[in-house]
């Protein structure tokens, strides 16, 4: 028996007399244990990153299934009460169906005298290929100067593992978990959490019945200062398909005789947004909640260095030159991004082809008080009317394949107060209160269906490169983040 | 000794007394020999198509080299005087260099009493992948109902082989070749015949010194009626690159803060051409030679069924609804095609990325009296001025990577009269006199450098699908085309 185990036993004994007194929280032991086991945590992350769980590519679906199995096995081995929940099938554009990755739920503890938290995370990833411009193999976690490079490292495998390791640390030190802990881990987040909404609705009165709080760590800090996140933008993701000839044509032989689908597509895409970033789709801007004076003041106070932001992404000029406009357009105004075109020539070199069918992929990040169903109609009507003016014989089909809602929390809620205390304990600073430009589609669903309070507690770095080449998670954020989670369990136990 | 060989000997004996009398041309023997050896010809084509000699992809360069070696070996085995001419290296965008495929030259016969023809062709191909929508493996020649499907089958491997087989047939039947035959076969045609111009200039007074006529068969018929081609469009192929952030960004995290390169690129591409096909780049339309009454009349008489053209390519409406406008815009007016965008998301599914660097590929088919150097300046100046108006901090780079000139011949030239006679003999019809919307970049160079007369004698079908999915060569065109070439050698020998 080591001195550590002894002290843990002591804590348990004392706890049973006076539950969770503040001064008795064994933070130092937990912290030291995390430090001394960091190589194991990095190795587990390496094992998880090695699985190419790209949920957007149905050919990778077996990897997604394997990733869910690995997650379930890990939680099972820790003694959790684990389920792999079947959430049905995904319908593909060609009418075929493919099984969705099962959702993993797990439970550690069911003490009715404790609060119950549910940690949400996902273990699917965005696509990544070495030839996209990665410096390292994207599915081989590579440590360079304390940064762990790999697809999904920060989004969202390391945060999920940090929560799992937190439970392990309490277990290893035989410290009673201050709260009952549930996990809900999915494998379709990157493509819109297909099937999860229905599963949450179905388990509203079972799995979620005793949950007090939902915690999400699928985001990142704004600077080197730790942050708590109180809002996210939604995402309406569109396919605009223009179809013309029945097959690709030689541009010499046919150029000048056919109305080219690519010209039509470029023409309608060019009407979405102005050079200065103004969204041109009627009705979109009008729906946005106006910026309050209080919010303006709050943005003024946030630690955010525009120059280092510019230098990090490597641009000489941003869309807005002052902090408030920039943060506001990042967090609480909608934006349109054209991601690319499927079906056109996209390789290196030259090809003299008239593509027969081209599909633009673009998305609109949306905010309160926009509504995805309304956005879908606004975009579809607008593009159809713009297209009609071209008098093209080609066929336009507009589809909204993702319609994820924005989410906004109250920063004065006790959940956030506990979060501030945990950050203060681990990092000895006050967290920034920030919003997230990206989308955590499930936040709004959790809120609407379960009625529970939600907090987003990020541990990812501000420069982790989510969704882009060379995504990474720093060892510092991974390890200190695990300590933050350990401290947060304790702070949550103090809530009335 | 067979009766065939006997008759051939007889021909040679008589020829030496009265060279090439019309009534003694052994067309029937040649024709029967071709028919009875067609399986061999198809097998050779299969062997050639199996080589993925995609000249646009430097990773395929070894296949291009192999293709040139196979061509040289074939001609060598037939007793030709063969050379593999080193034409230097290709400079890649990153500054590296890679060897160009050597040019194969060959010579059969050097009788000063005969005309000398030079057959030009190419054995490189456009890119092709099964997943582009091919019904069969593109590099495995597949015979379906008499159509031979495979990349490069029609463009240009079968026509090159048909000329080679023509020489073989004369040899096999021991019939003296009516003309001296030279071959010039290259491996960079699909990307602009890099290095060939200089080689032609260098060999002007050697290889080309005794050449009377140059024959090109790198095109196709307009309908089921055989055709002779008297003009081609040129091609100016552009890369327009817009570069912004130093790497791809998450569209949620960064959308709204950066000026996205894709939005800029779409914006400038949309200014190239109007929905009705009008080129918007100043100066382009003004340079085009006007349509003469004689030409208008000629187009009126050409066999061309708009309805079957529409149904072949599968569109309900063309850019022009009358035959003359349609043919004129196919052959003798310029057009802009946007082929695609490199660097953006192009896969199936969804990806929420802001691409950091995107490169549009577009080309302008140009015609007399446009000049590639002028077009380059017009396009670059125009796009830069359009881009400047956007006031974007991103960087635009416009490059013209191919600048191939148009070509136009005189249909009254004896070369064409001989062609008409050969078509009449084999197919028993008058050929259509047509132009080609595509580009045979080298035609203009041959004309300018060597001063020789050129004819284009296509054997490809009107529906061969050059540069697109399911390219094919029909057995009929391949085999009857070989007979046409055999007949043409004879007709050429009658020219004064």
Share of β-strand residues of chain A: 15-25%
The CATH class of the largest domain in chain A, by name, is Alpha Beta
Biggest sheet strand order of chain A reads 1-4-8-5-9-19
Mean pLDDT of chain A: 93
Number of helices of chain A: 15
What does this structure look like?
The structure is a homodimer of 496-residue chains. Helix content of chain A is 36%, strand content 21%. With 496 residues, chain A is an alpha+beta fold. In chain A, strand 6 and strand 7 form a beta hairpin. The longest helix of chain A is centred in the N-terminal third of the chain and has 20 residues, at 153-172. At the A-B interface, strand 12, helix 7, helix 8, helix 11 and strand 13 of A face strand 12, helix 7, helix 8, helix 11 and strand 13 of B.
Brief summary of the model shown:
Chain A is an alpha+beta fold.
Task: Describe how the helices and strands are arranged.
Two copies of one chain form a homodimer.
Chain A: H1 3-17, H2 27-36, H3 38-49, H4 61-77, E1 81-85, E2 89-91, E3 97-99, E4 103-108, E5 116-122, E6 142-144, E7 147-149, H5 153-172, E8 180-186, H6 196-202, E9 213-216, E10 227-232, E11 234-243, E12 249-250, H7 251-254, H8 261-269, H9 293-301, H10 306-313, H11 323-331, E13 335-342, E14 353-354, E15 357-366, H12 372-390, E16 395-404, E17 407-408, H13 414-427, E18 432-436, H14 442-450, E19 453-456, E20 472-474, H15 475-493
Parallel strand pairs in A: 5-8, 5-9, 9-19, 10-18
Antiparallel strand pairs in A: 1-4, 2-3, 4-8, 6-7, 7-20, 10-17, 11-15, 11-16, 12-14, 13-15
Helix pairs in contact in A: 2-15, 3-5, 5-15, 6-14, 8-12, 13-15
């Amino acid at each position: 028996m080591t001195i550590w185990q002894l002290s843990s036993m002591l804590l348990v004994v004392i706890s049973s007399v006076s539950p969770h007194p503040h001064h008795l929280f064994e933070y130092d032991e937990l912290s030291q244990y995390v430090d001394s086991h960091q190589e194991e945590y990095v190795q587990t992350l390496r094992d998880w990153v090695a699985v190419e769980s790209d949920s957007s590519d149905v050919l990778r679906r077996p990897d997604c299934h394997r990733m869910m199995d690995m997650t379930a096995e890990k939680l099972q081995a820790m003694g959790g009460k684990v389920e792999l929940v079947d959430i049905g099938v995904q319908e593909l554009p060609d009418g075929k169906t493919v099984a969705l990755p099962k959702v993993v739920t797990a439970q550690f503890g069911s003490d009715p005298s404790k609060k119950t938290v549910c940690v949400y995370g996902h273990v699917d990833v965005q696509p990544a290929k070495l030839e996209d411009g990665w410096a390292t193999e994207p599915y081989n976690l590579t440590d360079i100067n304390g940064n762990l490079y790999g697809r999904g490292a920060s989004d969202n495998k390391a945060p999920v593992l940090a929560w799992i390791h937190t439970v392990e640390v309490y277990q290893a030190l035989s410290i009673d978990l201050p709260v009952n802990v549930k996990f809900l881990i999915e494998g379709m987040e990157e493509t819109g959490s297909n099937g999860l909404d229905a599963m949450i609705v179905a388990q509203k009165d079972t799995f979620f019945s005793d949950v007090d709080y939902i915690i999400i760590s699928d985001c990142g800090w704004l600077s080197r200062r730790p942050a708590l996140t109180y809002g996210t933008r939604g995402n309406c993701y569109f396919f605009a398909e223009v179809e013309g000839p029945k097959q690709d044509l030689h541009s010499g032989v046919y150029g000048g005789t056919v109305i080219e689908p690519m010209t039509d597509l470029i023409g309608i895409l060019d009407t979405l947004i102005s050079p200065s970033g103004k969204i041109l789709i009627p009705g979109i801007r009008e729906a946005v909640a106006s910026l309050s004076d209080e919010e303006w003041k709050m943005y003024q106070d946030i630690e955010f260095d525009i120059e280092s932001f510019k230098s990090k992404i490597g641009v000489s000029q941003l869309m807005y030159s002052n902090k408030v406009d920039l943060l506001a357009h990042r967090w609480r105004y909608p934006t349109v991004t054209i991601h690319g075109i499927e079906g056109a020539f996209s390789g290196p070199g030259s090809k003299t082809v008239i593509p027969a069918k081209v599909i633009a992929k673009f998305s609109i990040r949306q905010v309160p008080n926009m509504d995805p169903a309304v956005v879908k109609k606004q975009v579809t009507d607008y593009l159809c009317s713009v297209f009609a003016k071209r008098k093209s014989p080609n066929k336009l089909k507009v589809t909204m394949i993702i319609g994820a809602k924005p989410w906004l929390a109250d920063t004065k809620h006790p959940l956030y107060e506990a979060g501030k205390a945990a950050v203060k304990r681990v990092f000895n600073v006050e967290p920034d209160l920030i919003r997230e430009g990206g989308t955590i589609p499930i936040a709004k669903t959790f809120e609407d269906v379960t009625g529970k309070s939600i907090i987003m507690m990020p541990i990812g770095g501000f420069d982790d490169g989510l969704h882009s080449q060379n995504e990474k998670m720093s060892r510092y954020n991974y390890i200190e983040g695990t300590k933050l989670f350990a401290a947060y369990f304790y702070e949550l136990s103090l809530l009335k």
